[in-house]
């Protein structure tokens, strides 16, 4: 592989099948495996604990944990425990989720997301680096000590789309986690905003992780692959945070049901050249860690093993 690459191994119908995928990614030399915390799925931290026990070298990360369902002290405990279980291989990705999920599903309030994230990450960072936190904020408060082993430089990434959250990631995090961000958006919006945040904190851009999800499908039927990805893209285009970023990227080309031109910019769907070409586009735009996610469940689609082998070639 030309540069480090991650793989999304979010647990599917059986956990054992997902463990086999994690082991395959390790054998193929991928840098890391990442698990999404979906609102209706298994607990991502426990899935990663299973992956940690079943692998030896490959990095592990959350992409991402929502901050409103887990108090920052609990997030720090989970992260440090996973890091201990895995022998120092864990990376913590955090996100605010969306108003429809936070308020309609969880019955909570999503207000001032950047300010809430600043407080949340500050508490987690304090526990990771010093073993304690004592903070009273508008959104989160914490007073606790952590007595178990901890790695003080455990990486923390923030899911970000808006200029304010991207600059916050650059200022206080070790990386940014991106989903539905085309290479053009990464080049023109993400990198400059992150750099501004780094400069405000007196830190260099070098060493900051720009981790971007790259949807891929090795398929004999690219049209069917695009139609399958369109279902996902349409769902995310209905969420305000994602829609704002997509509109800034594609302008009048963007629609409630994204056209082929948008899908082709976001994903690599087709033969091996199409898959690897998408990964290269993301790298050239400034992505330091492409994270491959499969677009499956359509006629002509290759399986997980064949697809990631093609990407790794």
Explain what the structure shows.
- β2, α2 and β3 (59-62) form a beta-alpha-beta unit.
- The longest helix is centred in the middle third of the chain and has 18 residues, at 113-130.
- The chain is of the alpha/beta class.
- Helix content is 47%, strand content 18%.
- It has an eight-stranded parallel β-barrel, surrounded by eight helices.
- The protein has twelve helices and twelve strands.
- The chain has a domain at 1-159: TIM Barrel, CATH 3.20.20.
- The radius of gyration is 19 Å and the shape is globular.
- The chain has helices at residues 15-27, 44-54, 72-85, 99-105, 113-130, 163-172, 183-200, 222-237, 240-250, 260-266, 272-285, 304-312; strands at 6-8, 32-35, 59-62, 65-66, 90-95, 132-136, 141-145, 156-159, 175-178, 209-218, 268-270, 289-294.
Summary of the model, kept short:
The chain is an alpha/beta fold.
Considering the chains and any ligands shown, give keywords for the structure.
alpha/beta; TIM Barrel; 8-stranded parallel beta barrel
| Silhouette | globular
Strand residue content: 15-25%
Question: Structural class of the helix and strand makeup?
Answer: alpha/beta
Integer average pLDDT:
94
Q: How much helix, percentage-wise, in residues?
A: 40-55%
**Widest sheet: strand order?**
1-2-3-5-8-9-10-12
CATH architecture of the domain at 1-159: Alpha-Beta Barrel
Number of helices: 12
CATH class descriptor name of the domain at 1-159: Alpha Beta
Count of strand segments = 12
Question: For the record, what is the CATH homologous superfamily label of the domain at 1-159?
Answer: Luciferase-like domain
The parts where pLDDT drops under 50 for at least 5 residues are none
How would you characterize the largest beta sheet? Answer: 8 strands, parallel, barrel
* Rg for CA atoms: 19 Å
């Amino acid at each position: 592989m030309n540069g480090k690459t991650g793989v999304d191994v979010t647990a599917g119908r059986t956990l054992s099948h997902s463990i086999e995928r994690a082991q395959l990614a390790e054998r193929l030399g991928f840098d890391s495996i990442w698990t999404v915390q979906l609102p209706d799925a298994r607990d991502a931290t426990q899935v990663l604990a299973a992956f940690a026990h079943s692998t030896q070298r490959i990095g592990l990360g959350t992409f991402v944990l929502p901050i409103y369902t887990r108090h920052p002290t609990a997030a720090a405990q989970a992260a440090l425990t996973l890091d201990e279980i895995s022998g120092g291989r864990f990376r913590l990705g955090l996100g605010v989720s969306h108003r429809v999920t936070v308020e309609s599903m969880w019955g909570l309030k999503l207000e001032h997301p950047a300010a809430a994230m600043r407080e949340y990450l500050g508490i987690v960072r304090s526990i990771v680096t010093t073993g304690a936190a004592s903070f009273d904020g508008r959104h989160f408060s914490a007073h606790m000590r952590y007595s178990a082993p901890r790695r003080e430089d455990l990486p923390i990434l923030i899911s970000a789309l808006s200029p304010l959250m991207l600059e916050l990631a650059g200022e206080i995090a070790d990386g940014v986690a991106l989903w539905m961000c085309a290479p053009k958006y990464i080049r023109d919006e993400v990198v400059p905003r992150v750099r501004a945040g780094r400069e405000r904190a007196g830190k260099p851009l070098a060493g900051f992780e720009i981790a971007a999800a790259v949807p891929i499908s090795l398929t004999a039927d690219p049209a069917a692959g695009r139609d399958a990805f369109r279902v996902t893209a349409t769902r995310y285009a209905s969420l305000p945070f994602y829609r704002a970023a997509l509109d800034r990227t594609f302008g009048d080309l963007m629609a409630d049901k994204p056209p082929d031109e948008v899908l082709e910019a976001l994903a690599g769907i087709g033969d091996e050249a199409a898959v690897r070409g998408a990964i290269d586009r993301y790298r050239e735009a400034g992505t330091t860690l492409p994270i491959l996610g499969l677009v499956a469940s359509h006629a002509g689609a290759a399986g997980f093993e064949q697809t990631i082998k093609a990407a790794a070639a």
